[in-house]
TrEMBL record:
Annotated source species: Paenibacillus rhizovicinus
Keywords: Cell membrane, Membrane, Transmembrane, Transmembrane helix, Transport
Residue ranges occupied by any ABC transmembrane type-1 domain in the UniProt entry: 83-288
Entry protein name: Sugar ABC transporter permease
Subcellular location: Cell membrane
Family membership noted in the UniProt record: Belongs to the binding-protein-dependent transport system permease family.
Ranges annotated as spanning the membrane: 21-41, 83-104, 116-134, 169-194, 215-237, 267-287
Gene3D superfamilies in UniProt: MetI-like
Domain of life: Bacteria
Entry keyword annotation includes Transport: yes
Length: 298
């Protein structure tokens, strides 16, 4: 009579011995992920579908469905404009930072006295330019470059890029010093990537008569493609948490407004996340396709 129960017990005992130890090791991560990632994300999505009021008894939720998402594009006059403007700025900032980091890493990868000091100097802004420090620097006008106004470059920029993109280009030019402060990590990634290229390859092409210019385009740059994609992903994520980010400011402002509140602010945050996710997916697709073509050719 008890034979089926014994078989089931032995089966569960076998599975516990086989997977139980591994699950016990994973248990702290599972608890942490559930408490600090899964629950907040799920709760945020829940709030984005409700009108959230704060009363004497705590939060009160009123079901709205997708109305908050609809209002973000139809009723809100600031959010779509800020979102488009900020994405335009990102499309300029990301290539500037990555190209600047690539050029600086090429220079810092050369052998010269005091090289480690120069590497440390380029990395120092990453340590000091934390969120609150950077906010204070912005408030005090540090990092602004007045040459756009001094030399009256506004009309010239409008002539070549159009009025629609002139403000974006002028903003990026005005903040170019602070933007370049964000290149410290990317420089380190590029320098680490250069160490993966065997010096014997450079020696071989030098014997064949290739110039340093040829070596860069034929060896260094193709070998740096994975690190370029990594730096672009890092830069995109880093800039989307920029302290001067107008989208994050708009979301924070709506959190404390009576007519919008936490529900609408969460909906804006999810829309913002969706745009970031799509942009990252496009970048990853582009570079994975490039890497696939290179592997086929090789």
């Amino acid at each position: 009579m008890n034979k089926p129960l014994d078989i089931a017990r032995q089966r569960y005992l076998y599975l516990f011995k086989k997977y139980g130890v591994g699950m016990l090791f994973m248990l702290p991560w599972i608890i942490g992920f559930s408490a600090f990632v899964a629950y907040p994300v799920g709760y945020s999505m829940f709030m984005s579908l409700h009108k959230v009021d704060i009363g004497p008894d705590g939060f009160q939720y009123h079901w709205l469905g997708l109305k908050n998402f609809h209002d973000a594009f139809v009723v809100d006059n600031e959010f779509p404009i800020d979102l488009i403007s900020f994405f335009q700025q990102m499309l300029l900032m990301v290539p500037i930072i990555v190209i600047f980091a690539l050029l600086m890493s090429l220079m810092l990868n050369q052998k010269f006295p005091g090289r480690f000091i120069y590497r440390a100097i380029f990395f120092l802004p990453v340590i000091f330019a934390t969120g609150q420090v950077l906010t204070e620097l912005f408030a005090q006008g540090a990092g602004d470059i007045p040459f756009v106004d001094q030399y009256n470059l506004g009309p010239l920029i409008q002539k070549y890029v159009g009025r629609e993109f002139a403000d974006t280009v002028m903003y990026v030019l005005g903040k170019v010093i602070l933007i370049l402060w964000y290149s410290g990590v990317q420089i380190l990634i590029f320098i680490a990537g250069f160490q993966t290229i065997s010096p014997s390859i450079y020696e071989a092409v030098r014997i064949d008569g290739a110039s340093p210019w040829d070596s860069f385009w034929k060896i260094t740059l193709p070998a740096s493609v994975p690190f370029i994609s990594l730096n672009m992903l890092y830069t995109i994520i880093d800039l989307f948490t920029f302290p001067d980010n107008p989208i994050i400011k708009h979301i924070k402002n709506n959190m404390v407004k009576i007519d919008t509140g936490y529900g609408y602010a969460n909906a804006l945050a999810w829309i913002y996340f969706g745009f970031i996710f799509v942009l990252i997916a496009i970048v990853m697709w582009f570079f994975s396709r490039s890497m696939s073509r290179r592997s086929v050719r090789s």
